[in-house]
Amino acid sequence: MSSNGSQLNPRLLRLSLIPALHRRAMLLLMLLTLIILLWPAPRSSSAPVAAPVTALAIPGLLADGWRDWQLAQLAANWQRVQQAVSAVHSAIVADARLRHYAIEPGDSLSRIFSRQGFSQQQLQQVLAADQSLLALDVLRPGHSLTFTLDDKLQLQAMELYVHAGNRVLYRREADGEFSYQELLDPGEWHSTTLAGTISGSFYQSAQQAGLTDAEIATVHQLFRDKLNFSRDIQAGARFQVVRSDNYVGSTATGQSRIEGVRLFNRRQQLNAFLHDNGQFYDASGESLERAFMRLPLSRTFRVSDDFNPRRLHPVTGRVRPHNGTDFATPTGTAVLAAAEGKVIRVENHPFAGRYIEIQHHGQFKTRYLHLQRALVRPGQRVERGQRIALSGASGRVTGAHLHYELHVNNRPVNPMTANIPLAEPVPDDSRDAFLQRVAFMIEQMEQETALAQLF
Ligand SMILES: [Zn+2]
After folding, report:
1. If both were cysteines, with which of 174, 216, 246, 451 could 253 make a disulfide (CB 3.0 to 4.6 Å apart)?
2. Among residues 93, 115, 137, which one ends one of the domains?
3. pLDDT in tens, 285-312
4. Please, is 291 exposed, middle or buried when counting C-beta atoms within 10 Å of its C-beta (0-12, 13-18, 19+)?
5. Residue 52: CA count within 13 A, CB half-sphere
6. 6 in any annotated domain
C-alpha cells in the first residue's frame, strides 16, 4: 500500500499537464482501484489476517506470495462488487415483477387494472376465469391483490386474498387464457357465549353484548313470528347467544355465525339452534325456517343446462364448473326470490351479465344471472316469491335463459336436488346429533350466565 501511495503524489502533481478528458478518466480509474483495494475482505477468506504484516516485514521470498495473495484479494473483491451489483439489479427486476395492492374503499377491478397499466384484454381474460366464482366483483378493504408479471411486464398470475382461509389464484395458461384455483382453508370455529339483559331496545342491548348488526338482524328474523321486538319485550328480559368465529391458525378470518340463541321474555322462552345443514330449528328440532321454492319462477321451464361442478370447457378442456341450473326462460320472464332474505349484490359482469345475489336465513345464498332488469336494490329485504327481476340474455350467453345458483355454507350446490329448507323438522337421521349439540350449547349458555352473575 505504501508503495502505491508514494507513486500517487508525483502523478497528482503532473495532473495539470494532462488533457481534461484523460484526467477525468484517470481519476475515475484511480477511484475505482482505491474502492476495490479498500473494500473489506471477506471474513471467511482462507488467507490469515496477519499475512500482510509478515510480507511487509520480510520482503524478498515472501513478496511473491504477498503479491499473489493481494491479486487473489483483488479478484475476490471484484467478484463481490459484481455480485452486489447483480443482487441490486435482480431486486429491482423482482420488485417490478411482483406487485401487491391493498383494496381501498370504492375500488373496482377495472380501475385497479388500468392504474396498474394492464390491458382491457387482460381484464376480460381474468373476468372470464372468474365467471363461475364471481369473487372479484366485491373487492373490499381488507382484501388484497398480488400481481406476478413476466419479463415484458405482462400479467402472469394474480392472487386474490379475501381472508386467511380464502384465496383465489388466477393464472395465465400456455394458451393465453386464465385459469382459476381456489385455495380454501376451512380453519376452525371457536364459540363464545354472549349474554345480556335487555334495557331499552333489544338492538341496543344486543349491540352492547357484542353482537354485530347482521347477527341482531338474524335473531329478529328467527323470532319475528313469535315476538314483536318493538312492542312485546319487557325490561329485564334476558338473552344468550352462542357465536362462532372462524380462525385459520391464530388469524381470525372475520367470518362469524350464530349457532344458538335463547331469549327469556316474561314467561316466554324462545330458542333457535343452527344445524349442520345450514338451517335453524328450535330446541325440540322444529323448523324455524320459511320454506324455499325449488324454482325461482312462477311456473316450470325446461332445464337447458344442469348443475355440473366438473364440467369441462369445450375449447380449453379445463374444468369450468357450471355452478347453477339454467332454465330456458324467454327474456322478460318474472324471476322470484326463492325465499325471504336480503339483497346483497346487484352487479353487471361482462360474462355473468346483470345478476342479483340474496343472503337468506341460516347459511343460504342464491344468485340469479343473465337478467334483463333488476327490480331490487342492494340492502333491500325481499319476501319469498317476490318479483326481483326480469330474466334476459345479458352477459356472454348463446340465448336467453335464467342461471340460478344455490349456495349452502358458501359452497354452490345443485339447486334441483339440494336439501333446501322446507320448514320441516330436523331430518330423522341427524336428530340425535342435533339434540346432543343443543344440550351442549344450553350448558355453555348456563355456565356463562352463572359466571356473569358472580362478577
Ligand atoms: Zn348457467
Report:
1. 246
2. 93
3. 998 887 899 999 999 999 999 999 998 8
4. middle
5. 7
6. yes
Give the confidence band of 52 by pLDDT, cuts at 50, 70, 90: very low
Task: Provide the number of structural domains found in the chain.
Answer: 4
For residues 116-140, give the mean pLDDT: 94
Q: For residue 263, what is the domain's CATH number?
A: 3.10.450.350
pLDDT score for 26: 58
Which of the listed residues 93, 123, 153 is the one where a domain comes to its end? 93
d(CA 330, CA 343): 24
Flag whether 55 is in a domain: yes
Is the predicted pLDDT of residue 429 greater than 70, yes or no? yes
Same domain, 237 and 168: no
297, part of any domain: no
**The cell 379445463 sits on which residue?**
318
CA 139 to CA 290: how far, in whole Å?
31
**Does pLDDT of 73 surpass 70?**
yes
Nearest CA-CA partner of 350 in 166, 139, 92, 128:
128
The residue segments making up the domain with residue 125 are: 103-184
What's the CA-to-centroid distance between 360 and ligand 1, angstroms? 21
Distance 368 CA to ligand 1 centre (A): 10
CATH of the domain at 372: 2.70.70.10
CA of 336 to the centre of ligand 1 (A): 17
Residue 326 Cα, ligand 1 centroid: separation in angstroms? 5
- The whole-angstrom separation of Cα 304 and Cα 309 is 16
| 343 and 373 fall within a common domain | yes
CA of 323 to the centre of ligand 1 (A): 7
| Residue 357 alpha carbon to ligand 1 centre in Å | 15
How far apart, in whole angstroms, are the C-alpha atoms of residue 178 and residue 180?
A: 7
Task: Write down the pTM of the prediction.
Answer: 0.71
Same domain, 323 and 282: no
Measured in angstroms, how far is the CA atom of residue 112 from the centroid of ligand 1?
28
Contact between residue 345 and residue 405 where contact means Cβ atoms under 8 Å apart = no
Residue 279 lies in a domain: yes
